[in-house]
């Protein structure tokens, strides 16, 4: 690999902190809110500005790199993952939280090279949680190594769960159905409202597993590396290999828990990114 990953890492740490600062300054101020695919899929001027800040600075430094960004895709840019170094960016993961002033809001950025995640950052600037990972080098929270929990039994697990930003009836049937399946058999279910933060919680050992249908590459591109570098597993919710463009993922602290979940949950297959 010809990329200077140390330099890429140094720059993205600095830029995510700058983006995080904008989020921090604005979370309890008035925002301009617009709808995307439906009335619960929101975007604010801060989502757009943070994405612009990240992409313009990365482009200036690495002109040959490619980008997949949530707001650029919403504006019509094609979402395409090639072997070229590609930054996959969710400037504000948890936009609904940001709009309401609920402090589970993260900048999520990953660098993928040859379709493999090399760098992953999930930064919640409100709660000051800076999760980072590099391929083969472990996962960290605010610079300190983190590890997934050692739990192997689903019945003793705390599960991260989301309702998503779609009102599609078929999808909601599956989401509510899985809630009904899980709540009687696990210790508890928790919803942060940020897919990236849900994945970071598995990496940290705060929850034991988490899965979602209908998310996009930018929600999970950093989290998948942080979870695996913390010792966890990331797979397709039906049990096959993880595919970052499939809009489906399941992550867990152990293969055992992942297998137990795969056996009982209902499946949903959204259109790919
Ligand atoms: C959303 C959040 C939410 C998840 C949705 C995502 P966004 O991302 O991660 O937790 O349930 O599926 O779209 O729109 O806030 O970047």
From TrEMBL:
Reactions that this protein is recorded to catalyse: a myo-inositol phosphate + H2O = myo-inositol + phosphate
Gene3D superfamilies on file: 3.40.190.80, Fructose-1,6-Bisphosphatase, subunit A, domain 1
Amino-acid positions noted as binding Mg(2+) 1 in the UniProt annotation, renumbered to this chain: 70, 219
Cofactors, names only: Mg(2+)
Listed pathway(s): Polyol metabolism; myo-inositol biosynthesis; myo-inositol from D-glucose 6-phosphate: step 2/2
Superkingdom field: Eukaryota
Example of a GO biological process term: inositol biosynthetic process
GO MF annotation, one: metal ion binding
E.C. designation(s): 3.1.3.25
Record's keyword terms, sorted: Hydrolase, Magnesium, Metal-binding
EC top class, as a word: hydrolase
Positions with a binding annotation for Mg(2+) 2: 90, 93
Family named by the database record: Belongs to the inositol monophosphatase superfamily.
Name by which UniProt lists this protein: Inositol-1-monophosphatase
Gene: IMPA1
């Amino acid at each position: 690999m010809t990329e200077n990953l140390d330099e890429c890492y140094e720059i993205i740490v600095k830029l995510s902190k700058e983006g995080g600062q904008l989020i921090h300054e604005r979370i309890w101020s008035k925002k301009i809110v617009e709808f995307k695919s439906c009335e619960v899929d929101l975007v604010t001027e801060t989502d757009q500005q943070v994405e612009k800040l990240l992409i313009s600075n990365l482009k200036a430094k690495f002109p040959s790199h490619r980008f997949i960004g949530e707001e650029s895709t919403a504006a019509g840019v094609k979402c395409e993952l090639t072997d070229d170094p590609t930054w996959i960016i969710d400037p504000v993961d948890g936009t609904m939280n940001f709009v309401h002033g609920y402090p589970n809001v993260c900048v999520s950025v990953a660098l993928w090279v040859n379709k493999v995640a090399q760098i992953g950052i999930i930064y919640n600037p409100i709660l000051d949680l800076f999760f980072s990972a590099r391929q083969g080098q472990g996962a960290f929270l605010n610079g300190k190594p983190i590890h997934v929990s050692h739990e192997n039994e689903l019945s003793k697990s705390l599960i991260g769960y989301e309702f998503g930003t779609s009102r599609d009836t078929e999808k909601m049937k599956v989401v509510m159905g899985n809630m009904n399946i899980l709540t009687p058999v696990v210790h508890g279910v928790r919803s942060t409202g940020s897919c990236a933060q849900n994945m970071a919680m598995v990496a940290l050992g705060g929850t034991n597993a988490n899965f979602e249908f209908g998310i996009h590459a930018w929600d999970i591109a950093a989290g998948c590396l942080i979870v695996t570098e913390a010792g966890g597993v990331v797979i397709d919710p039906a049990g096959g290999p993880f595919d970052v463009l499939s809009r489906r993922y399941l992550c867990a602290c152990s293969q055992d828990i992942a297998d137990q979940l795969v056996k009982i949950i209902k499946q949903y297959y959204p259109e790919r990114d």
